[in-house]
Amino acid sequence: MDNETTDRIDIEGHQVTIRPLSAADIDLERDFIDKLSAQSKHYRFLGGVNHLSTAQLKKLCDIDFDHRMAFMASVTTHGREEEIGVSRYAVDAGGNGCEFAVTVADQWQHKGLGTLLMRKLIEFARTHHVKRLYSIDLADNAHMRQLAGDLGMQAERDPEDARQVIYSLVLE
């Protein structure tokens, strides 16, 4: 674990660690996703997803610090680390930017964790010469709309699907 990319913060009396996700975190990622509410899964995966396959989880945990990056927020309870949030990006197929996502465990929402995770991801992206971050989200996702606004992102309707919004942030 790189101390330069690891933060420890207090949220409502809980010590929260924000650190890079790694391949060794596949079980934490599985538990995190499995515990999300149906609505949180719907917004994160733009549809109905209950569980991810091992291959999908491995892909999410495959971070190379150049083309794919993710930061995980966790707490330790009874000596066991538990993932409570994640922000990530991956370079898009055209190399024109990085698509990002952020997800926070239901019981940790509305505490500023999504903002902290995204600020960490944005800071990392800037220092790694990412020119643009963007996310495609469902238009009725009020939490994402609020977060995007708080982070100064631009919003536009997805020209291919009116039920979706594209949030973007130019970093250069």
UniProtKB/TrEMBL annotation:
GO terms for molecular function: acyltransferase activity, transferring groups other than amino-acyl groups. Keywords: Transferase. The keyword Hydrolase does not apply. Gene3D superfamilies: 3.40.630.30. Residues 16-172 form the N-acetyltransferase domain. It comes from the Bacteria. PROSITE patterns: GNAT. InterPro entries: Acyl_CoA_acyltransferase, GNAT_dom. SUPFAM superfamilies: Acyl-CoA N-acyltransferases (Nat). This is GNAT family N-acetyltransferase. It comes from Exilibacterium tricleocarpae. The lineage of its organism: Bacteria, Pseudomonadati, Pseudomonadota, Gammaproteobacteria, Cellvibrionales.
